[in-house]
Amino acid sequence: MRLLFGLLGLLWAQGVYLKRTRQAFVGLSSLHETPTCAAYGKNGHVVIGGYAHTGYSSLPDGWLLCLNPQGEKIWSLTPGGMGPDRIEDVVIQDSILYFCGYSGSALSHPEELPVERRADFWVGAVHLFTGSLLWQSRWGSPHIDIALTLCPTPYRTLLVGGTSWTDTLEGMQATICILNQRTGEVLHTLYWGDAPSLIRRIRSTPEGRTFFCIGEQEYRPFLAEVDHLGQVLWRVVFQFHRFPSQLQALLVSPDGRLIVGGRYGQTWGISAFTPKGQLIWERVWEANGLAGSIQDLAESPDGTLYAIGWQQSEALLSPEQKGGEDVWLAALSKDGRLLWERSFGGPADERGTAILAVGDSLLVIASKENRFTEAPPHLDAWLLTLQEVPCDAIPIQIRTDVPSLREKAGRPIRFWVDIPAGYEAKRISWDFGDEATAEGSPVEHTYASPGNYSVQARIELKYGCSEVYPSPVGLRITRP
User: Fold this and answer.
1) 3-state DSSP call for residue 173?
2) What does the buried/exposed string (b/e) look like for 317-327 if buried means 16 or more CB atoms within 10 Å of the residue's CB?
3) At residue 6, what are phi and psi to the nearest 5 degrees?
4) Are 80 and 101 in contact (CB under 8 A)?
5) Which residues pair with 180 in a beta bridge?
6) What pairs with residue 432 in β-bridges?
7) What is d(CA 165, CA 167) in angstroms, rounded to the nearest whole number?
8) Alpha-carbon distance 239 to 213, whole Å?
9) 1 C-beta neighbours (distance < 10 Å), count
10) Which pLDDT score is estimated for 168?
11) Residue 29's pLDDT is what?
12) Alpha-carbon distance 186 to 430, whole Å?
C-alpha cells in the first residue's frame, strides 16, 4: 500500500494547474472592441490590438490598449480615419510598439469602390509608455492590400507580411514589404507570385537574425524561412491535409522548434517542425462534425505548450443550426501529448484570439459576450489571468462527518473533499478500502464489517492536474 501511495504521489507531483486569478472586460466602455492580437513587453506591459466600433452601424477603427502588470489601463488609442480600419498584429521592441493591419481611409481607392473593398497596407509605431503615435504609413494599389503581420529586424527595418491584389490577373498574392523602423518609409516590396496566397505570421528567433513565416498557398498552409530582405530560403507546403486549410499561429520555441497551428481541412491541429522544416510531431483533433481552429500558441518555461482558439459547441442554437463558437484552451507536453483541453462560453459566438506566457502565469485574450453594461449584450475584449500552481501544492483535503475517525459498522458515513476557492473539480472518484467505490462529492458509505480502512479520493481538475490524490483518511470501524 505504501508503494502504491508513493507512485500516486509521484504522479501528483507532475504537472501544474492553471488557477484563475483575475478576469475582466477591458477597453473603453463606450466602444465595442474585438481583439485580434496581443504582445508582452519585458517591463511587464501588455498591449492588446484589434478594432472597435462606436456603434452597431459604424465602421471600425483600429484599437490599441496598453495595460500595466496589475492589469490596469495605461493608455488606449483608436487610430484610423473615415474608412474601415483594423489592426492584425502587434510587436514590442524596447520602448516602441509596432502595429500593422489594413486601412480603408487612404486615397488610393476610387470613390465608386464599395467600402468593404477599400483596404491599404497600414503600419504604425507608438511609444509604449505614453501611447503617443510616432508615425503611421498607408500605401497600396487601387485594389485590396492587407498587412497581416510584422517583425522587427536587427537592421532597423520591419518585415511586413500580408497579401496584395495589385494585378487583377494574378489575384491575391503573398507580399512582404520592408520598412524603415524610424520613419515607416517603404524601402522594398516583394510579391511571391503564387495566387491565391498570403503571409499570416512572421516571427524571428530570439537573436532576431532568422525569420520564419506561415501562410497559405493555393488554399494549402505553408511554413517558410526568409532572410531580412524577405528572400525565401526554404518553404514546406502541407500537401497532406485537405483544403481549404489555414495556419493562424506560429511559435518559435527557445530550443529552435517551430510550432504551428490552425485549421486542417474540417478539423484543427498543431504541428512541430525542426528549424529546417522537418516534421517532428503532429496533433490533429477529431472534428466529430464540429468546426474549430487554433488562433495562438504559447510555451511556459517548463516546456508546456498552450493553445488558444475556438471550438463549435455541441449545444445547438436552434434545431436548424449547429452550436455557436466557444473559447477553447488546451495544454500539450513538449512531445505533443495532450494533457487537457476545455471549451467555455455563452450562447454568443466567442473566440480566444491570443495567449501570452508571462512567468508562471498565462494571459488569455478573447472576444466574449459582455452582459455587464447598460448596453444590450455584445462582444467585448476579455482578459483572463491563469496562474500555474504545481499539482502537489494544491491544498485539497478529505473531510468526513466522523471527527474521531471511529464509527460502528452499519452506520452511514459522509465524505467530501475540501477544494480551495479558485480551483474547479471535473471529476471526483472514491475508494473506501473495502472494494467499494463511488463518484462525486459529497458521498455516503456504510461499512458492513469491523476493521481498519483507508479512504482515498482521486480528483480530476479543470485546467490541468488530471490525477490529484490528497492524503488518505484512516477509519477504525468497530462492532455494532
Assistant:
1) strand
2) eeeeeebbbbb
3) -65, -40
4) no
5) 157
6) none
7) 6
8) 17
9) 9
10) 67
11) 63
12) 66
Amino acid (1-letter code) at residue 321: Q
Q: Which residues does residue 478 pair with via DSSP β-bridges, in sequence order?
A: 408
Extract the C-alpha cell encoding 70: 496589475
Q: Tell whether the torsion through CA atoms of 138, 143, 148 and 150 is positive or negative.
A: negative
Q: What is the DSSP string of 408-444?
A: ETTSEEEEEEE--TT--EEEEEEE-SSS-EEESSSEE
Nearest by Cα to 412 from 443, 372, 368:
443
DSSP of 356-408, one letter per residue? EEETTEEEEEEEEEE-SSSSPSEEEEEEEEEEEEEGGG---EEEES-TTSEEE
Residue-level pLDDT at 314: 73
pLDDT attached to residue 77: 92
Contact predicate 224/247, CB 8 Å: no
The residue length of the chain stands at 480
Residues of the chain with pLDDT under 50: 1-13, 319-320
To 5 degrees, how large is the angle CA 189–CA 190–CA 194?
145
* Number of helical H runs and strand E runs in the chain: 1, 36
Contact partners, residue 326, CB within 8 Å, separation at least 6? 310, 311, 312, 313, 343, 344, 345, 350
Written as one letter, the residue type at 120 is: D
Q: Confirm if 48 and 67 have CB atoms less than 8 A apart.
A: yes
Residues 6+ apart with CB under 8 A from 95: 127, 128, 129
**What are the φ/ψ torsions at residue 117 (nearest 5 degrees)?**
-95, 0
Classify residue 15 by its DSSP letter: S
Q: Which residue has the cell 496584395?
A: 164
**Which domains occur in the chain, in start order?**
16-392 (2.130.10.10), 394-478 (2.60.40.10)
